[in-house]
Amino acid sequence: MTAQRLIQNFRGMRGVLWGGPTMAAETLQATLVRLGMTPVRMQDIDAQALDCGRDVLFVDGDCSLDPALIGHAGCTVPRAPAVGLVGVEAPSRLRALSDLGVTAFLRKPVHAAAVYSSLFLAVNGYRRLRNLELQLAEHDRRRRGRRFLIKAVVALMQASGMTDDEAYAQLRRESMRLRMGVEDYAEMLVLRPGASLTATDDTRTITQERTDGTEQDDACSGHGDGRGLGDTADSQGGGADQARCA
Amino acid sequence: MLFSVDGPYGVVSRSMLNGALLAIEQVNATHGATIRLKPIVVNPAGDLARYSSLCIGLLSQGVKHVVGCYTSSSRKEVIPLFEKADALLWYPSHYEGFECSENVIYTGAVTNQHVLPLADYLLERCGRSAFCIGSNYIWAWENNRILRERLAASHGTVVAERYFAVGDTDFAQVIAAILHARPAFVFNTLIGVSSYCFLRDFRAACAACGVDQAKTIPVASCTLSEPELEAIGAPAADGHITASVYFSSIPDAANVRFTDDYAARFPGGPVVCADAEAAYIAVRLLALALAATGGRTDVAEVKHAVTQVVVDAPQGAVRIDPETLHAFLTPRIGRSTSAMRFETLAQAPGPVRPDPYLIWNSPRFWTAASPPALRVAS
Question: Which of A55, A163, B199, B354 is the most exposed place for a label (fewest CB within 10 A)?
């Protein structure tokens, strides 16, 4: 697996500050400008439009914030990387920041020399967590698809007298030819009413139907995630960044 | 004045102190001057603990403005003291950036004014493989990282990085490794006596192998200066490439006046160098700022005032960027000569804006080092 690339230059990003209307943020704002970022207040933007590729949240732990405001359905990480501003080091405040999904802290009063380090940690820690989460979701999805693969292997063995290795090799070969994950291909075969699993010609017929798009809805039934034909399981690693939280 | 005129980097520090003292004398001698500067000189002798104790002593006396420090480790050591006392450190040396203290005015060059122009020059003129050798602290680590990124972006390679403790002088093994690797150039971030010994020994080792070191494996750095060439000595002083915002050989009238005044005031040396000029600039800027505040030493007032003035420095016009408190300076590339000076090989068309966090001069993503060509098989 390719190593996570670290972001070191934050030019062009936004620092979204949450600390209520009386938040004293002169040092933080001045430092963000030095780092090439644009500071904005949370109340001045649409929180639903937070973008993890552009925004970094700075959340004052002493000022309550509803996690739902920055959360993302189905994700444990927030919509954008977040730095927790710690004033009171009480467990309740730290837990509130942790529940929001912050990946770095900055002690109040903010010291300019600590901002770059926190930003570096928050953004790169967030990216690592989010990628792990996306990989986990992908592995879950593939695990759920294994029962279709077993059914397809068994069906091929029964229909054509193949061994399990031969049946799997054929499924794998055909799925690669179609640029599909083998689980997706097996699911398509199993769920397609009347599909024959015996002959390569028959498989090609299915291939042709999918390429035409005539069986698209049927083929994708049971997925519910709207993945296209080009989104093979093997290609998910590189595209995981954009997959869900974009 | 906080300079380690003794210790491993005493030669450069003496030159820096001289530059600062010359500026003070010129300010005090100015006809109609509204301010008068009185220097208090202390010498930590390169000992980090003494930097702290001496600063505490100065600041507790009510001193508000200190010109000094050479190494980043000494600067990092004293910055908290200046922040606590709300005083101002005027830091007159080139360094590796990634810092913007509200209590420091930086008059030396940062990375986009030294190592980046040097890397571009070396890639264009020398080749794409580098052997990095440095003193084991932040200056070397960070400059090597930046050079590595620049080389990687141009499909170049760093064949090796070797670090030595400050003050180390035994380089026989690493010199053998360099001769074996035959890089296009050596990037030298050693400081003080370590650098002088390395350059002498490397030149001698190359000569023993029949290699013209300066032409075949040139040594490049962002630190080598005129007084250090004298410390290296004639047989090994020439042919080294250096990035600097100032060389004493700059032919402009302002620099001729400066070098003449310096030589007259300090005939025993050390000769003037970039860090001496940076110390000179720091004092001149301080004086201009104090004149603008009517002599009030309040840090906030002086900081504001210093961003409003321009000093006609030996290297050209210099001013302070209000956003970062770093100086606009003019990068140059030079090559040392047997006369213990530098000939200018390339020069920026004008002062370059400081970019201490490299927000305009580095890629968004960290550049990974090239994978090794060989893998451990067993």
Answer: A163
Domain that holds residue A229: 140-243
Contact yes or no for A126/A82 (Cβ under 8 A): yes
| Average pLDDT estimate for B235-249 | 96
Q: What is the pLDDT of residue B162?
A: 95
Cross-sheet strand order for the sheet of B88-91: B65-67, B88-91, B104-106
Residues of B in contact with A6 (CB under 8 A): 365-366
pLDDT digits (tens, 9 = 90+) for B112-157: 999 999 999 999 999 999 999 999 988 899 999 999 999 988 999 9
Instruction: DSSP for B322-365, please give it.
Output: TTT-BEEB--EEEEE-TTSSEEEEEE-SS-B---TT-TTTS-SB
Residue A3 lies in a domain: no
Nearest chain A Cα distance for residue B215, angstroms: 36
* CATH 3.20.20.30 fits domain B115-221: no
Helix (H, G, I), strand (E, B) or coil at B159: strand
Does any CB of chain B come closer than 8 Å to the CB of residue A113? yes
Tell me how far the alpha carbon of residue B95 is from its chain's centroid: 6
A29 and A98 inside one domain: yes
Residue type, A225: D
Give the residue on B whose Cα is nearest the Cα of A7: B365
Residue A146 shares a structural domain with residue A114: no
ipTM comes to: 0.78
- What architecture does CATH give domain B10-109+251-328? 3-Layer(aba) Sandwich (3.40)
CA distance A4 to chain B (A): 10
In a domain, A107, yes or no: yes
Q: For residue B314, what pLDDT band results from cuts at 50, 70 and 90?
A: very high
Please tell me if residue A114 touches chain B, with a CB cutoff of 8 Å: no
Write down the mean pLDDT value for chain A.
79
What is the spatial distance between Cα A103 and Cα A105, in angstroms, rounded to a whole number? 7
CB-CB under 8 Å, A7 with B360: no
